[in-house]
């Protein structure tokens, strides 16, 4: 990944901030690859940025990695442990699957991110990459809720390359990718294929080639998750040609 990619993304973030008349960015820090790269990018775009470390039953080492890299970036952080809130909230609900419970974690973090964004007139920086977005591998209205996606056009392997350009620690780059939504959860384990095969298959699908189990599985994921990448569908009601919309003036 070339160094000018960093400059292009940083300038794009600056332009988006100015277009929205926002004062800066807020980004959730998990201690993982994608959020670390996004933190480095918003830090290059502006001094007005905030990293939120929002553990919910999260490994201590992940929080430590997030905090240490934020210190390396001179990025201001806030630490808000949401575990007690999550436990209180889920006690009100019937027993659910690990997926349903994991999605609650992502949505609680989203609430806090937007709270800080509203407080500071910041934009919420999403951490999704092109691979995850294509597959719908994110929580709708959870980590999928954001205002900007600086790495949304980069495959996972490209994010790894960019991370080295941005001096992300090797231990973070080599960390097993996980959304951290339940114990021992990993991206590759849940999807069923390694990221190297996933990225290769996705590029084949874009070129119109769907061969092998990986490509067929991913194509199904893409089709089934289209609703995650679109605005809510509206039921359109046919009206007589002479009937205008309410409030229309002729």
Task: Classify the beta-strand content into a percent band.
Answer: 5-15%
CATH topology, by name, is Rossmann fold
Number of helices: 11
What's the gyration radius in Å? Answer: 20 Å
Q: What is the CATH superfamily label?
A: HUPs
Helix content: 40-55%
Specify the CATH class: Alpha Beta
Q: How many runs of DSSP E, i.e. beta strands?
A: 4
The domain count comes to 1
Structural class: alpha/beta
Read across the widest sheet, the strand sequence of neighbours is: 3-2-1-4
Oligomer: single chain
User: What's the architecture in CATH terms?
Assistant: 3-Layer(aba) Sandwich
Query: In whole angstroms, how far apart are the ends?
Result: 56 Å
What average pLDDT do the residues reach?
Answer: 95
Overall morphology: globular
**Low-confidence parts:** none
- Report the major sheet: 4 strands, parallel
Output the helix-strand order.
HEHEHEHHEHHHHHH
């Amino acid at each position: 990944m070339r160094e000018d990619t960093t400059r292009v993304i940083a300038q794009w973030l600056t332009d988006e901030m100015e277009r929205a008349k926002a004062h800066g960015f807020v980004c959730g820090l998990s201690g993982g690859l994608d959020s670390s790269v996004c933190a480095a990018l918003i830090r290059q775009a502006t001094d007005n940025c905030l990293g939120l470390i929002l553990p919910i039953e999260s490994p201590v080492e992940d929080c430590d990695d997030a905090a240490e890299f934020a210190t390396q970036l001179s990025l201001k952080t806030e630490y808000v442990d949401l575990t007690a809130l999550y436990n209180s909230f889920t006690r009100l609900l019937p027993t659910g699957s690990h997926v349903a419970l994991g999605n609650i974690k992502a949505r609680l973090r989203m609430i806090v991110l937007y709270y800080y964004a509203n407080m500071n007139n910041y934009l919420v920086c999403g951490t999704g990459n092109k691979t995850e977005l294509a597959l719908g591998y994110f929580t709708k209205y959870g980590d999928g809720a954001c205002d900007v996606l600086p790495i949304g056009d980069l495959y996972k392997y490209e994010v790894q390359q960019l991370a080295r350009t941005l001096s992300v620690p090797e231990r973070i780059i080599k960390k097993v990718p996980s959304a951290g939504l339940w114990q021992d959860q990993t991206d590759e384990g849940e999807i069923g294929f390694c990221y190297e095969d996933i990225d290769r298959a996705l590029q084949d699908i874009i070129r119109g080639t769907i061969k092998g189990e990986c490509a067929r599985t991913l194509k199904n994921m893409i089709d089934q998750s289209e609703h995650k990448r679109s605005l809510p569908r509206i039921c359109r009601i046919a009206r007589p040609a002479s009937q205008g919309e309410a409030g229309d003036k002729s």
